[in-house]
Design goal:
With 738 residues, the chain is of the alpha/beta class. Helix 18 links the parallel strand 18 and strand 19. The protein binds shikimate-3-phosphate. Shikimate-3-phosphate binds next to helix 18.
Amino acid sequence: MSTCIRNTLIIGLGLIGGSLAKALRQNRQYGQIVGYDRDPEETKIGLDSGVVDVAANSLVDAVSDADLIVLAVPVKAMEKVLVDIAPFIRETTLITDVGSTKANVVEAAVRVFSVIPPGFVPGHPIAGSEKSGVAAADSTLFEKHKVILTPLAESSSKAVNVLTHMWESVGAEVLVMTVGKHDEVLAATSHLPHMLAFSLVDTLAQEQDNNTDIFRYAAGGFRDFTRIAGSDPTMWHDICLANKNALLAQLDRYTAGLANLRAAIECGDSETMLGTFTRARAAREHFSRILSGTAYSQLMTNQQVIFRAQPGGSVSGKIRVPGDKSISHRSIMLGSLADGVTEVSGFLEGEDSLATLQAFRDMGVVIEGPDAGNVTIYGVGVNGLKAPPGPLYVGNSGTSMRLLSGLLAAQAFDTELSGDESLTKRPMGRVADPLRLMGAEIETAENGRPPLKIKGGKALKGIHYDMPMASAQVKSCLLLAGIYAEGETSVTEPAPTRDHTERMLNGFGYPVSQNGSTASVKPGNQLHATRIDVPADISSATFFMVAAAITPESDLTIEHVGINPTRIGIINILRLMGANLELLNEREVGGEPVADIRIRYAPLKGIHVPEDQVPLAIDEFPAIFIAAACAEGTTIVTGAEELRVKESDRIQAMVDGLKILGANIEGTEDGAVIEGSELSGGTVESHDDHRIAMAFAVASLRSTGTITVNDCANVATSFPGFVELAQSVGIKVEREEG
Ligand code: S3P
């Protein structure tokens, strides 16, 4: 980008101004760097140490020549400097500042300029150190730091662009927000913590008898406070005055929280103490992940994950796959709404269900774990949820967003539900529309996409809803809303879909009645805490069932798999294709049927998949497409248009990938026609969809060359440990991180 800046003037060569001057001087994109400091000694040091190209002797001359002016003076001095320079600023000159509060800088500018110049864009680099003065200037100070620009209504977009580029050129990441938002955010995240540090260190230092000991034995935590308390007192004095109102509001919130904790300690209230500590720890993890742009699992980082699967191998052994995703989500939701303590075992520690778990922690529920699949939920009762501190971020999880929307539409507080890039493309009108019929107020982005902004305090009314699509998520959403709605809420489904919500509500003692294809709830009942044993997820087991079914000499047993009749489409479909599949040791665990599934190789044949099986196998189609490509003859899938709005367009993703592997396959609007074919190697795209990634890894068992699958990080949403488990049974897949 050509900046057309020939002269950049930095007024104030303290740490920030000096560091910016030095960095800009090094990158040579902002013309001559001219420095001015009201202390001539500082200006001279700046020149002598190479921080600036030119030391300005006359501020007036320097301002008249400047194309870009950066005001790096203390916030309190800003108005005086503006008064001095305003008459000499040219019309095209760009002006910004680095003050750590913004409303007062803007107020000063309004007083000084009769009309705010279009080149004025206030800014704030979130960087600094305890050092000060031009001698401490550090050209790397802004690298990987955030800079907030707060454009005004008068600011031109050109000015915003040039200043964005300027900060990026010194390694910073630029965020844009309003002045008000900036001051509120900074009061909470910077000004309040500084107040706490100053006050704590001051208080402890005043303890006459043992203050040396306190400092001598200072452990890590306290040392951090003393570091922050080492910041410049005058600057902080000015900030307190400049951002008084926002800071006072944060101090009040904090003192109330502290008083609460004090009271809990005084009367030994473990629940409040543990609640505060657990929530705080979880919040820290949550925010670090949001900030690094990743979701929830410990292993996830922002990196690229690729699966590379060598051809051949066979599949044998006895395995257990992770817990059922649908049941895991619901265990957290209903456990949170129950009275009493719910113990969950077998919980899926995948990112999707962890997203739900975090959402409830954000709404004040104390949840311990997960620890080896065990979770303890201290239920708050049907009306016990609290307003979360910010938007509920649910990552990749459609189930979290859709089910939560029903629950949240009925709460007293406002909420916002947001998700990752894939989820942001998925349709939410299917839940927002019927919820609106119940009286909910929900705002979506264009075309009913996330984020969802849900207004609290709405009295919902029960409705009868004929679902236009077979969706367990929509059904569950409405039933959860129905717990709070006046009168009866009933949902009729066009075809059976998974009924975990109905079963689990009944398991918690909350009556749900079933009349044919209609499920109904009434308000006014309580949920009573219970134990939940989550069976292994049949959708995860599917990849291994298909692996064994397509590979000669395979013999695999998958233990403790949930075989709820609304989920066994995959068993029915594989059997119709000729698979050798046995259900052993059938039993019921906590209201859900479970079995061990033994599957041995037998040649598969193509079929027309019965449409009534489609909703019962809705998540299994990526793997079914692989089975079909390895079967003899033609497999036809119809009535499966829902696949186009899953984590990816699963019809397109499978058609594209299988074509790359040489299969003879054509996509249709609602399915595909797949000829049994020999599969070659190749590189396929998962489109960030966990099930597409796993399906293609399994295809390698029958391919003649290596299959590389791109963008597999999201496998962690539903199946942590997939690669290791696949390797343990004989699939030659490796995970590579880039
Ligand atoms: C789910 C329902 C299904 C399924 C999803 C989980 C659930 O979605 O695809 O993975 O837990 O209720 P739809 O109900 O939208 O088909």
